[in-house]
Amino acid sequence: MAMSPHLTLSPTPTLTFHGPQSTSLLSTSSATISLVSPNPNQPATPLFHVKTSKHSKPNVTITRLSGPPNAPPLATATFHTLTSSIDISFGGSSNNPGQALPPLKLSQDWTSVSLGARTFHYAPRGLDLKWRARDALDGHELRDSQKRVLARYKSCSGGDLLGTGPPVLEVFVVGADEALVDMVVVTAVSVVRAEEREVKKVMKILGDLG
After folding, report:
1. Does any domain span residue 7?
2. Pairing with 12, which of 80, 162, 200, 204 sits 20 to 30 Å away (CA)?
3. Residues 6 or more apart from 65 whose CB is under 8 A from it?
4. Which residues pair with 169 in a beta bridge?
5. Per the domain annotation, does 1 fall within a domain?
6. Where is this region: Disordered (predicted)?
7. What is the C-alpha separation between 2 and 6, in angstroms, rounded?
8. How many domains in the chain?
9. Are 125 and 7 within 8 A, CB to CB?
10. What one-character-per-residue DSSP string does 173-186 give?
11. How many CB atoms lie within 10 A of CB 194?
């Protein structure tokens, strides 16, 4: 296991999530993120609901499926086109709905060789983190300032290029608390959704030119 001043990291995933897979609903899309059981005979447990809005803000709203009906969203994300930044605001945790994580600003790293890399500071652990694309076919990684991998997102699983398996989010932090898991899930979804939005805009422009 690799050690850092703030986290213990495992070479294999300590938590695995499936999703989000989107179902289009006109100007919005709806998706679910499920926690995969370590027992292969047990089904995955749906934990989060993701709503993406194409034309209104916030652009992403994430709720915890186990929360009370009137609980605030776990988090919302707003995309800024001019700066390519993402503002994330948190609601409360499931244990204490009134206690929220501090807001995050994911800034475009224009110096990175990885297109779409976004950096942010996670104050509760004093971590400077970066979501970066691994390559066009293998998703994204969340790294700390020492380039250790905290989490990895793959757009499809199953080891093929056909996208037959669900998207997978793997967490490599040993003993991750709820707040850190929330941060990983929310930032992963926000980065992926923002990049999907940017790609669609580019494709539309190319289509208009054609």
Report:
1. no
2. 162
3. 32, 46, 47, 48, 49
4. 17, 153
5. no
6. 1-21
7. 11
8. 1
9. yes
10. BTT--HHHHHHHHH
11. 25
72 domain residue, yes or no: yes
Residue with tokens 């709806």: 30
> Which of 191, 51, 183 is closest to 127 using CA atoms?
183
pTM for the model: 0.86
Q: Do 62 and 74 contact (CB within 8 A), yes or no?
A: yes
CATH of the domain at 142: 2.40.160
CA separation for the pair 17, 62 (Å, rounded): 15
- Residue recorded with tokens 């997102």: 153
Q: Tens-digit pLDDT profile for the chain (210 aa)? A: 444 456 899 999 999 999 876 555 555 688 899 999 999 899 999 999 999 998 889 999 999 998 787 888 999 999 998 888 999 999 866 555 556 789 999 999 887 656 668 999 999 999 999 999 876 556 899 999 999 999 999 877 654 445 567 889 999 999 999 999 999 999 999 998 888 776 665 455 555 555
- Residue 20 is which amino acid? P
9 falls within a domain: no
